[in-house]
């Protein structure tokens, strides 16, 4: 029988359910087929006017009822859809009975909502006008839409989770952070199961403009499917995107006792903050290096045991360079022979959801024995010497994966997953 405690005597944490929604489609089956086929979900933006904008493409999720109802509504619908898929796969009923950890974007009113408010009182201007129309607004819907914890509260009611749901927002590392919180809750013995969800429906006009002002976005609008090109010499920025992923965690002991199918093991979590710059990484890469090392240490594994890296791989000149520095520092010369690919080449950067989405795909990589490609890799960068699984998927027997999330503002989180327990 499998050992149910790890090298530190903590409960082994198993994954028993996965759910995914991205611009490639709804559900893991549809997403995995498209991802491994090298299909891109990036397309021209149709949700809001793009005249005069430098970037006019995104990986928006446009096929759901809430796709045009604002960030909060879309984030909730994607989270609920991914959560229900994961819980169903885990074979858990309507009363989940464990805590919920959600990664979600900061909440704000959309420009449509703001304009609708402002139309209510044309006699005032500025801040006074905003206060006046806010006082006249309906008592619940607008207030709830602007509360950071609303999405998690609704999910908790829908799934029957236990206790106060936790919502976290740690930039591009948020999804991995939510996973870490779920893993640690089980390790501490606070629960036998938990669900972690990353969801982000914030590909809004405001977000696009803000990232554009930071010179972070690709402006290669003519061929949207070719715009995201991680680790390529001609990369020019990331592509804003939306999506969600949910992972159901259980102590291995609990999962085996109820006869659940174990999809993989969450072996280690590592995090490290970087206060160097709001967008740039510290030049020596030390925080990212430390996050990778911390995840391996937590997992009780060496870098030689990792068979594949699901890279953060945003397609920005700075981030890809720093990720290569961190990997080559930790893995040494061996990194040239370790497959390293980026899901963002196909789905774009799903921001708060990215760490969860990529963790789910990492588990599928081990389950299916298939490495997703890094598409659009046509002009290699000689300064980044990596095996990026260029353009076409590859069969591989992988037993352990490192998944990286390196976010703006110095938020770094890494996960180590394995196919089997120790």
How do the SSEs run, as a string of H and E? EEHEEHEHHHHEHEHEHEHEHEHHEEEE
Largest sheet: 11 strands, mixed
Low-confidence stretches: none
CATH classification, class level of the largest domain: Alpha Beta
Mean pLDDT: 92
- What structural class do the secondary elements suggest? alpha/beta
Strand tally, please?
15
CATH architectural group of the largest domain: 3-Layer(aba) Sandwich
Number of helices: 13
Domain tally: 2
C-alpha-based Rg, rounded: 21 Å
- Shape verdict: globular
How far do the termini sit from each other? 11 Å
CATH topology of the largest domain: Peroxisomal Thiolase, Chain A, domain 1
Helical proportion, percent range? 25-40%
Structure, described:
By secondary structure, the protein is an alpha/beta fold. The chain has 2 domains: 13-108 and 146-418, 3-Layer(aba) Sandwich (Peroxisomal Thiolase, Chain A, domain 1), CATH 3.40.47.10; 112-144, no CATH class. Helix content is 33%, strand content 18%. The chain contains 13 helices and 15 strands. The chain has helices at residues 28-36, 71-90, 111-118, 126-136, 141-145, 150-159, 174-187, 205-213, 252-257, 286-299, 317-331, 344-347, 354-368, and strands spanning 13-22, 25-26, 43-44, 57-58, 100-103, 166-168, 193-200, 243-251, 264-273, 308-310, 340-341, 370-371, 394-395, 400-407, 411-418. The strands form 3 sheets. Strands 1, 2, 5, 6, 7, 8, 9, 10, 11, 14 and 15 form an 11-stranded mixed sheet that branches. A two-stranded antiparallel sheet has the order 3-4. A two-stranded antiparallel ribbon has the order 12-13. Strand 1 (13-22) and strand 2 (25-26) form a beta hairpin. Helix 7 (174-187) packs across helix 13 and helix 10 (286-299) packs across helix 11 (317-331). The longest helix has 20 residues, at 71-90. The protein is globular, with a radius of gyration of 21 Å. The mean pLDDT is 92.
